[in-house]
Amino acid sequence: IGLRALPVMEIAANITFLNDFQHTFMLFNPGIPFLLALLGSFLLFKPKKKDFKNIFNIVLPKLIRTALLIFLITGIMQIVINSGLNIRGSPPMIPYLLGETLPSGSYYLVPFLGAFGSFLSGSATVSNILFGNITASIFTEASIPIATLLAMQLIGAAGGNMLSLQNIVTGQLTAGPIENEEVPIIKAILPWFLIYIGLCLGLLFFLVL
């Protein structure tokens, strides 16, 4: 939060590719504190050359596996997000699949939509990009405020991060010699996820009354 307040963190660069696609790189992102911590550890502990060799031998193979998973899933999410940019003029994938099937009174699906988006992408932000406009359009005439439904979607997205493969693989890398244990980890987390979603639904039920 303190870093975000610095004016230098507002520096951004826009990159356009394939005519219609654009990505914004900002100096402020979640990786900056980790890079600063890494730099600080180098200055504080002054590692030797052999330490760097040991670090790369242990960490690099695990980073490759994690990076490939994140790269593949992120690519799929970008295809889904930008699926409306096509020469046939077809609607985007998510509204096409869900726009006509969700009745206007399905308030209790909103947290699940958020959780599903972050489960697929590993990011609550991407989940909001995928489903935020859909939630706002479907429940435009609902009695409950759209802002409340979008807040519940964000809460659900935070819960979906528990089951995200990217987060689980990254956690295995951080925890140490734990590999290829995604299924047991998901089974262990699933009851807590259901409790979390149950609390979300209870809160939403209270707000709808």
Structure description:
With 209 residues, the chain is mainly alpha-helical. Helix content is 64%, strand content 6%. The chain has eight helices and two strands, in the order ββαααααααα. Strand 1 and strand 2 form a beta hairpin. The longest helix has 33 residues, at 49-81. The mean pLDDT is 78.
Summary, kept brief:
The chain is 64% helix and 6% strand. The protein has 8 helices and 2 strands.
Give the tags.
single chain; 209 residues; mainly alpha; two-stranded antiparallel sheet; 8 helices
Radius of gyration: 20 Å
How many strand units? 2
The biggest beta sheet reads:
2 strands, antiparallel
- Give the overall shape, derived from the CA principal axes: globular
Question: How are helices and strands ordered from N to C?
Answer: EEHHHHHHHH
Percent in helix: 55-70%
Please give the order of strands in the largest beta sheet.
Answer: 1-2
Report strand %: 5-15%
Oligomer: single chain
Helix and strand composition category: mainly alpha
Tell me the span between the first and last alpha carbons.
36 Å
Low-confidence stretches: none
| Mean of pLDDT | 78
Q: How many distinct helices?
A: 8
Outline the secondary-structure elements.
Blueprint: E1 12-17, E2 21-26, H1 31-45, H2 49-81, H3 93-98, H4 110-121, H5 124-138, H6 146-160, H7 165-175, H8 182-208
Helix pairs in contact: 2-7, 4-5, 4-6, 5-6, 6-8
